[in-house]
Amino acid sequence: MLRPFARLQLLMVWCFLLMSSALLGFLSLPGQARAHELRPAVAEVSVNEDRIEISLRLAVETLLAGIDQSQVADTDEAPEAEVYDRLRGLPDRALAQMVETRFADISAGISLEGAGPLSLASVDVIAEPDLELPRDTVVSMSAELPPGTAPVSLGWAARNGGLVVRHGEGPNAYAAFLQGGEVSAPLPRSGVVEESTGAVFLRFVVEGFEHIIPKGLDHILFVLGLFLFSLAWRPLLAQVTAFTLAHTVTLGLATLSIITIPPAQMWLVEALIAISIAYVAIENILRPKLGWWRILVVFGFGLLHGLGFASVLGDLGLAQGQFILSLIAFNIGVELGQLAVIAAAFVLFALPLGRSAIYRRVVVIPGSVAIAFVGLWWAFERSFM
Q1: Within a 13 Å sphere around the CA of 59, how many CA atoms are in the beta-carbon half?
Q2: Which DSSP category does 231 fall into?
Q3: Among 17, 70, 92, 187, which is least packed by CB within 10 angstroms?
Q4: How far, in Å, CA of 385 to CA of 373, rounded?
Q5: Is the pLDDT of residue 196 over 60?
């Protein structure tokens, strides 16, 4: 006969399986693609002797609506949400005409160092009849370059959100992710950007770290859930190792396109990540003892988190010549971010209260309850809202 803890654990497993099955069922329903989630724009840049050409692919309605994308992650959170929805409802041709009319507003968010003013070349609205899904528009533009060989740099306004910049072709093509008003590396008029191995490595270490701190609140809560399980170093090491190995596997497989998750279904991965946060927090309360099941569950959830990490690298479109180096560097950055979270939790909670008899009552239980509540809310929000 099963002991009470074993029965509770079995019940939790069945609940997780049922929730996962329900989420899978909703894949076929409209409106589950997190249509209003903000995504980075992508700029394909070509530079020659006398001209720079930019092909900008983005949900242009966000710019036309005036949404400050540095402050929100979803258009529904913006004060201009109704304006965005009206623009999303425009026919494709009407939207293209509006882009042509308001090109000056769009180009104002793009800065070119070493080039003349931008002029519009064409607007191509990619048809998407489902209004609950985002619609991409490709805005092609160009600018004249002064005589000489000086390179040109591309800047992107902070309020426009993120921008993936791609320049050149072949194994050494340049790819960078700009945000917060950043500017690209100088783009040469011939050849490609020459980045040292160390510069590429450092750039992706920073990108991986920032995906945890400050951007990855869901990953931070999961790591805190692992930390709250036990102050002993062996259980923590076993869980973190299992989590790291798992997300490394799926990060690599997804980035290599061996595993692919359609963008319209990434909401399912994000929802399951939220469920994983709630699960480890609830188990902290009900079963504070390390066993093979806990390690297996953490490993399984690590596979999900790896898919979430991979979506960031997928946006960057890594060049072949930088692929392995960038992948390793990004993963190292993620691990450094996780270690920073654990170190901060240790200093704030374990050092002052870890040896106290009230540690579990005033830190572990309330912290796990809060984490579980947030995880369950996110699972609901990411699935049905």
Answers
A1: 26
A2: S
A3: 17
A4: 17
A5: yes
